[in-house]
Amino acid sequence: MFINDNFILDNEYSQELYHKYAENMPIIDYHNHLEADKIAANYKFSSITELWLGGDHYKWRLMRANGVDEYFITGKASDYEKFEKWAATVPYAMRNPLYHWSHLELKRYFGIDEVLKPETSKMIFDRCNELLQQDDFTTQGLLKRMHVETLCTTNDPIETLEYHQQIKESSFNVKVLPTWRPDKLMAIEDLTIYNAYLKKLGEVADVTINSFDALLTAVQKRQDFFEKMGCKLSDHGISELEFVDFDENQLPIIFQKILIKKPLTDEEILTYKSGVLYYLTLMNYKKNWVQQFHIGAIRNNNARLMNSYGVDAGADSIHDGRICQAMSNLLKKLDGEGHLAKTVFYNLNPKDNDAMVSMLYNFNDGSIAGKMQYGAAWWFLDHKDGIESQLKALSNGGLLSRFVGMLTDSRSFISFTRHEYFRRILCNLIGNDIEKGYLPKSEMAFIGQMVSDICYNNAQKYFNF
């Protein structure tokens, strides 16, 4: 059996840590991209293809690399034709994390032990589809199956959050909370699109946005609404973090230029983005929200895919930009004013691992254990090597014991096995240290508690769920 009880667990210490302290902990998934409307409707998927391949750009990238025509990826091929092409790709994906993820998902959700390949494709397709017709394989059923306790979706400030309200009023006992994602407030590269967004923001906030102060009023009203809906986190997706000291008096002037769509200079763009980001982080602090920063993706690189499919087609990459000076500028200003919220930073480029930890740990202030968090291995780093590298960088530069743990960052309702994947890797890393004598065997109880904390307890306390 490929996915067995001791998968990735090399020795008795790793196995004890996982089975005793990690395996049965509930899941807090504090950052994902699941659709709240599907949860509210207790949606039932039509097939494993819809559930597994619909919107999954991780799989799409590998299928393209394996010579699969776009017709079988995002095109109009039948569900089985698409699934068959993925099954034919999986054997060639050995050592890619999707090989592990795919088989973990088949095992945990569908009880399937067979290796996915062309010879087993039809059997696995039929078995999954049969199970998906059962009442406990709906969106809500899939979440319960993995003992998900809390999950946080990702939401634009203009969203109504009506489905979050429906879930809240229902008998479903998994907390589904929104996360504030205000990226479009800084996206001033296209002033026509930006002004159209301001109009929508003004309508939902019932504010005429004709000045920078009016913009801040509208944003504050939307934050107040998100807070009433249970929001406890913000998230900021930034390709290249830029932040400079700015002249507040310039912001209203720049904003008036934006309203009449007058081209901005590079200096004005940097000033405006720095100012908006500052006020967003100030609002986060006043709400006592945890703020997250995802740094380092360069998106939509393939114009052909962008034109034919749109965003999130699987054409994003790791950026190689600088991060340290901007991090220092931003955190120094907020900390100096006493307005630095609990903060999580994620990097996408592995070159930044140690630099990010060292910068974050400049700004812990003793007010709370683990205030400044080096976030979990993200996206292109969400694999065994990347997870181990993140854990090692955090261990070497800070306190692994205070880490708030894993998240899925996923659009898939069966991605929660990534928490198991992380937990196994965590326990194996620590278990190997114990076996080698790098950590004391006599402290197994404390180490076990540390594992439980990283898997669940730290996040529950840090995010105040």
Outline:
globular
Mean pLDDT: 97
Oligomer: single chain
What is the rounded Rg?
23 Å
Low-confidence stretches: none
Query: What is the first-to-last residue Cα distance?
Result: 38 Å
Class inferred from helices and paired strands:
alpha/beta
Total number of beta strands = 9
For the record, the CATH class of the largest domain is: Alpha Beta
For the record, the count of structural domains works out to 2
In CATH, the topology of the largest domain is named TIM Barrel
Major sheet: 4 strands, parallel
Share in β-strands: 5-15%
The helix/strand order is HEHHHHHHHEHEHHEHHEEHEHEHEHHH
Q: Which architecture of the largest domain would the CATH scheme give at its second level?
A: Alpha-Beta Barrel
How much helix, percentage-wise, in residues? 40-55%
Fourth CATH level, the homologous superfamily of the largest domain = Metal-dependent hydrolases
Major sheet strand order: 4-5-8-9
Q: Count of helical segments?
A: 19
Which tags fit this structure?
four-stranded parallel β-sheet, 49% helix, 8% strand, TIM Barrel, alpha/beta, 465 residues, uronate isomerase, domain 2, chain A, 2 domains
Write the SSE topology.
Layout: H1 12-22, E1 27-29, H2 36-40, H3 48-53, H4 57-65, H5 79-89, H6 97-110, H7 121-132, H8 139-145, E2 148-152, H9 162-169, E3 175-177, H10 191-205, H11 212-228, E4 233-238, H12 250-259, H13 266-287, E5 290-295, E6 297-298, H14 303-308, E7 317-318, H15 324-337, E8 343-347, H16 353-360, E9 372-374, H17 384-397, H18 417-435, H19 444-462
Parallel strand pairs: 1-2, 2-3, 4-5, 5-8, 8-9
Antiparallel strand pairs: 6-7
